[in-house]
Amino acid sequence: MKISEMMEQFLNKDEESNMSEKQKKIVKAAIEMFSEKGFAATSTSEIAKKAGVAEGTIFRHYKTKKDLLISIVMPTIIKYVSPFFAKSFVQEVLENKYESFEVFIRKLIKNRYEFAKRNFPILKIYIQEVFYHEELRGEFQNIFLTHVYEKFIKIVKHFQEKGEIAEIPPESVVRMIISTVFGYMLARFLISPETNWDDELEIELTVRFIMNGLKNQE
């Protein structure tokens, strides 16, 4: 499921929100447009048309498109969507049993690749804003630590005990894996999306890189 689809479900069910129905329509429209076209390519007139409101209605609530993004869209995504997808990642990847560390790594990379492929226009905005806003960064870190980190560490320790990967601090192993996979996703979808990528080959090379780097040399 895409972030925009998930966001619409949460907004429709949210009974505690202080947003009016018009505001909810604006937020849903903004997230859908940002997901499809990206932030820079989306105009407030397009958001208004999608939401079925006058463009002036947006500016009565939000001074600029950026204000709409920072004050409502990003906090709403972090509040509702991020924990859901963190839990989904845990269920789909981290709570399974694997016959080898390589099988685990392969599953992890393919899972994140499919997620990024479905959602990268909105993820691009997320990545950019998290770097520049400490509050958003703190929320993201909290979600990672709450839902993902300990289970990731547990898997690393399991395969270290089996002798499949090097005895280096598990925290370092997690950091290396995340930085490698994140780097691949950035190159694939943000830095060089126009490149004629052979995704199966790139995933395979990424798996080999991680496995060779973490191989137990004893």
User: What's the N-to-C terminus distance?
Assistant: 43 Å
Largest sheet: none
Whole-number tally of structural domains: 1
CATH fold-level assignment: Tetracycline Repressor, domain 2
Second rung of CATH, namely the architecture: Orthogonal Bundle
**Number of strand segments:** 0
User: What structural class is derived from the secondary structure elements?
Assistant: mainly alpha
Characterise this structure.
It is a single chain. The chain is mainly alpha-helical. 78% of the residues lie in helices and 0% in strands. It contains 9 helices and no strands. It is elongated, with a radius of gyration of 20 Å. Pfam families: TetR_N. Residues 20-80 form the HTH tetR-type domain. Keywords: DNA-binding, Repressor. Residues 43-62 bind DNA.
Features:
9 helices; mainly alpha; Tetracycline Repressor, domain 2; 218 residues; Homeodomain-like_sf; Tet_transcr_reg_TetR-rel_C_sf; AcrR family transcriptional regulator; repressor; elongated
Quick take:
Keywords: DNA-binding, Repressor. With 218 residues, the protein is mostly helical. The protein is built from nine helices and no strands.
Give the topology.
Elements: H1 3-13, H2 21-37, H3 44-51, H4 55-61, H5 65-94, H6 101-132, H7 134-161, H8 170-191, H9 199-214
Helix pairs in contact: 1-2, 1-5, 2-3, 2-6, 3-4, 5-6, 5-7, 6-7, 6-8, 6-9, 7-8, 8-9
